[in-house]
Structure formats: structure tokens, C-alpha cells
From TrEMBL:
GO terms for cellular component: cytoplasm. Residues 1-24 are annotated as: Disordered. GO terms for molecular function: ATP binding; protein serine/threonine kinase activity. SUPFAM superfamilies: Ankyrin repeat, Protein kinase-like (PK-like). Keywords: ATP-binding, Kinase, Nucleotide-binding, Serine/threonine-protein kinase, Transferase. Residues 57-292 form the Protein kinase domain. This is non-specific serine/threonine protein kinase. It catalyses: L-seryl-[protein] + ATP = O-phospho-L-seryl-[protein] + ADP + H(+); L-threonyl-[protein] + ATP = O-phospho-L-threonyl-[protein] + ADP + H(+). Its EC number is 2.7.11.1. Pfam families: Ank_2 (PF12796), Pkinase (PF00069).
Amino acid sequence: MAPAVYPDLNQPSVPSFKIPPRSASMEGNEVYEAARVGDLERVKILVAQNTGVDKETALRSAAGEGRLDVVKYLVEQERADVDARDYVGESALIRAADRGTCIPPSEIEPVDFTQNDSNDAGYNRVKWLKADASVKIFSSDSYGSAVTDLLRHPNVVNTYGVCGVLPELKLRVCEYASQRFLTDHYTTVERATLWKHLHNAAVGLLYLHEKGVVHGDLRCNNILIGADGIAKLAKFGQTCLVTASSPDDLERWQSPEILKGHPPSYESDIYSLGMCILEAVNGRAPWGDEWA
């Protein structure tokens, strides 16, 4: 039998474990927290140490807390994708909108106010937190209406918040629909795609009605197509836009009761949706040349 071996009690014991390497999840949590509290220098260090860090998650964190300097760094220097969404479908802009309805003017960068990107729908293109967005101009007495229109749905042009640029004027900051109007797609898409857009519009209208909102001005020029190819309703609720005027032939899409002086209703919206379908399928405005 081999003799027993006993440890030398005079020698200090040394633990036989190793410190585990830092995991990607640990570094991801650190950059998320640094972005959330606005520690720009810490964010830069963590990103430099690990090029595979989840920059989009950090971007959403910074946007949700209004850390504009971190947002600018991640987008401009690290090329973080402002349109990337998390597992529940939220982007950096949606996170930013969730922090409140008031958007500081410092976060808005004009792109082109000399040309209206959405015709009489009344939108102008801007950058908000380095992402494409649109704005509509309101008088100060319609501020409450603009704020209450913070509706979220894939088939509605989403409102992110309101920016007060002057005491008498407010900017309603909205989703940017890069593919413009449904009217621009009559002859450029397959008939099945056109019907898909019309179905999107119907679903968006159903959502508005479920939220107690009457659109009141539904026509194909107020159905916009987003970068994702999804149709979205714009200019709903008939808020007081001070820079746009209604077209002279608006009555083409209006129901008989509206023409008799009654206020817009769910039923009149359905009638207008029917006129939109006729317009899209025929490729021309309702009633054609017969309108006087």
C-alpha cells in the first residue's frame, strides 16, 4: 500500500479556480447602462473594447432617456441602425417617444422645408435623433389635439411627440413615409400590391375608429407608403394645420351627409374609403371628368 500523502500545512493554500472571461452579455449590459445614464466616455470605451457589442440596444437605451450626445455618437461614429427594432418591435424613435410628448427643439434637424414632402398632407421632412421623421405645423391653440393624437399602429402614420419652436407654433413630429403617396403607385405596382395597400388603409381606419378617432379627410393623397412598403393613414382627426389648404374638389371623396353639412362620422369615413378604392382601381379621382 502506498504511503498516505498529507498537505504541507506550512505552505499557504492557493485556490485552484480561474476568473472567467467577461462574456458578451456582461459587456452588453454595461454599455446599455452607460448609454442609459448618458456616460458617453464609458460608452466609447466599451464599444472600442468590443466591436461586436450590441450598439442598437445601447442606442434604444440612450434614446429612451433623451441622451442626445450618446445617440449622436452611436449613429454618426458607430453607424448604429436607428431603425433596428427589439423583440417587441420598438425602435429608438419609439423608445424616445415613450419618454414623453414634448420633444426639445435641439433634437430636430431640418432637412428641407422649401418643398413639402407629402403634398397637401402637410408634412415636411426632418431628422429626429438622426433618424428620418416628418413634421406638421400647428397653431398653439391646437397643441392639446396634437398631443392626444399619439396613436401607434403599423397602418397609421405614428406621432412621436410635439416640439415647441415658437410660442404660437408647434411641430408635430411624425413617422416619415419615404415612398410617398398611394397615388404615386397606381401604375408602378402589381394589382395585388395595390389591393394590399388598400387593405392596410382599411385596417388603419378600423384602428382609428376603435380609438374613437374619425379620420374626416380620407383620400388616396392621405394614404402614405412607408419604407417598409406598408400603407399608413395620414392627416386624421382634422387638426388645425396652419400651412395647408384643402383642395377645391375635396367633395369628390365626401359622403352625401357631409355635403349636406353634417359633421364627419365613422360612416362617412367608410364612404370615403370606398371612394379611395374606386380611385386606386381606376387610376383617377372619383367621378372623373364629370365633376363640376
